[in-house]
Specification:
Creatine Amidinohydrolase, Chain A, domain 1; 6-stranded mixed sheet; about 20% strand; globular
Length: about 400
C-alpha cells in the first residue's frame, strides 16, 4: 500500500472500494440467510481491538464510546451513533448513507426493528461488546436475539486483496516499532521508556490508539509467565525482555509481531524453549494452508512444545482482522476449514511445569494454497539490542 500524500490519497488508499463493500455485505448476508436471520446488529466499542466490526461494515473508526450498524437481510443498512458523540470521530469516513444519532441507541434500534416486524435478530458483540443499556432495550422486545459472534467472523475470515494490502501496511509499521525498540535498548533505560519508542513510531505512522502493548520480563536471560504493563523499572543487561506489540495501521487491519530481546543471551532452559518455538513456526508455515481445520493445525504445531513437557498458558493462535481477536481460535474445538488468504496471529504462550520460565512472542500468517506465509519475514530468534535491521 502506497503512502498517502494528500487527503484525497488518504481516502483512496484506506477507504474500501465499492466492490470491496459489496463483497463484505454479500458474505455477511449469506451468513445471515444461512442462520435464518432477518436483521443483524453489529456493535463496536472503543475498547482496544473491539472497534473493528463497525469499521468493517461502515468505515467509521470509533474514537470514543460505541456505535452500531443495523443490517437488514434486504434493504439499506443504517449506522447508529450515540447523540453525545455526534462530534467525536470522523463521520465523513462512513460509507453508508443512513446515519442516526439518537439519545438512546438501544431504544432507537428496538423501535426500528419493531417497525420492520423483525423476528430473528442476530447480534455481533453479544459476548463482550454491546452496551448493557442498549442490550436491555433490545431484550425487552418480542423478537428473538441470536448470538452471531462466530458466524460473523467466519463470514469475514477470508481477506480480499484490498484487505491484504492493508494487513501488509500494518505489518510494516509493527516491524518498524519493534526494530526501534531493539535499536534503542541500553541498560538503565526503563521498561516504559523503551515501550515509548515503539508508541512514538506507531502514533507517528497513524495508528492512533489502535495499539495493544505489554511485556514479559525476567532475570538472567529468562522470561517469567506474567504479561504486564511496562513500568519505571530500569532494565538490567542480564534481563530478557519481550515487548508484545499489536497494532493496526490506517486501513484498520490488526497484526501482531514481536521478538525477544536478550542482551546477554538466554539461559539454558530458555534456549531449549526457543528451539520448541522455532519448530512451532516451521510447522505453522507447513500447516497454515487452505483446507486444513483450526483444531488440527493447533495439534500439529503445538506438538514440539507439549512433547518437551511444557504447559500452555494461552491459546496458540486466532483469526485476526479489523477486530483484534476474531474467530476461530486456532485451537481445540474449532473445526473451521481455513480458506486461502485468511490471516491468523500465531503466538503460543508456554511455560515450564514450575512456572519459572516461559516464552511468548507473535507472528502473523497469511493462509496460502500450499503453505502459510509469515508476514514479517523475520527469523524466529532473539536479539541482543542495537541491531540495525532484522
Amino acid at each position: 500500500m502506497e503512502e498517502p500524500e494528500t487527503m484525497t490519497d488518504y481516502v483512496n488508499n484506506f477507504r474500501p472500494s465499492k466492490a470491496e463493500i459489496e463483497r463484505r455485505y454479500n458474505n455477511i448476508r449469506a451468513a445471515m440467510e444461512e442462520h435464518g436471520l432477518d436483521h443483524l446488529i453489529v456493535s463496536g466499542s472503543e475498547y482496544s481491538g473491539f472497534e473493528g466490526a463497525v469499521r468493517y461494515m461502515c468505515g467509521f473508526h470509533i474514537l470514543h464510546r460505541y456505535a452500531y450498524v443495523v443490517i437488514p437481510l434486504e434493504g439499506d443498512p443504517v449506522c447508529v451513533f450515540p447523540r453525545e458523540a455526534t462530534w467525536v470521530g470522523d463521520h465523513s469516513a462512513t460509507f453508508l448513507e443512513q446515519r442516526e444519532f439518537p439519545s438512546h441507541c438501544g431504544d432507537w434500534i428496538a423501535d426500528y426493528l419493531k417497525a420492520r416486524h423483525a423476528k430473528q435478530v442476530g447480534i455481533y458483540g453479544l459476548d463482550y461488546i454491546i452496551n448493557v443499556r442498549d442490550y436491555s432495550s433490545l431484550a425487552s422486545c418480542d423478537f428473538t436475539l441470536v448470538d452471531f459472534e462466530i458466524p460473523f467472523d467466519y463470514a469475514r475470515a477470508q481477506k480480499s486483496e484490498e484487505e491484504l494490502a492493508s494487513v501488509r501496511h500494518s505489518m510494516a509499521i509493527n516491524k518498524e516499532g519493534v526494530l526501534k525498540v531493539i535499536q534503542a535498548y541500553a541498560p538503565g533505560k526503563t521498561e516504559a521508556e523503551l515501550m515509548g519508542v515503539a508508541e512514538h513510531t506507531f502514533a507517528a505512522r497513524g495508528c492512533g490508539r489502535n495499539t495493544m502493548d505489554m511485556i514479559l520480563t525476567g532475570p538472567q536471560g529468562s522470561l517469567t509467565p506474567q504479561m504486564v504493563f511496562p513500568s519505571q523499572r530500569p532494565v538490567e543487561e542480564s534481563d530478557a525482555l519481550m515487548y508484545g506489540l499489536e497494532i493496526s495501521g490506517e486501513g484498520g487491519h490488526w497484526v501482531e509481531f514481536s521478538r525477544v530481546l536478550a542482551p546477554n543471551g538466554l539461559d539454558k532452559t530458555m534456549q531449549e524453549m526457543m528451539l520448541a518455538y522455532q519448530e512451532f513456526h516451521e510447522l505453522a508455515e507447513e500447516h497454515m494452508k487452505a483446507g486444513n481445520n483450526a483444531e488440527a493445525i493447533a495439534k500439529a504445531c503445538m506438538k514440539p512444545i507439549f512433547d518437551r513437557g511444557y504447559r500452555s498458558g494461552h491459546v496458540c493462535g486466532h483469526s485476526i482482522g479489523m477486530t483484534m481477536i476474531e474467530m476461530p481460535r486456532i485451537g481445540e474445538g474449532f473445526y473451521f476449514i481455513l480458506p486461502e488468504n485468511m490471516v491468523c496471529s500465531m503466538h503460543p504462550h508456554f511455560m515450564t511445569e514450575d512456572r519459572t520460565h516461559s516464552l511468548y512472542f507473535q507472528e502473523t500468517y497469511r493462509v496460502g494454497k500450499e503453505k502459510g506465509e509469515a508476514l514479517s519475514g523475520v527469523p524466529v530468534k532473539w536479539y541482543e539490542g542495537g541491531e540495525k535491521s532484522f
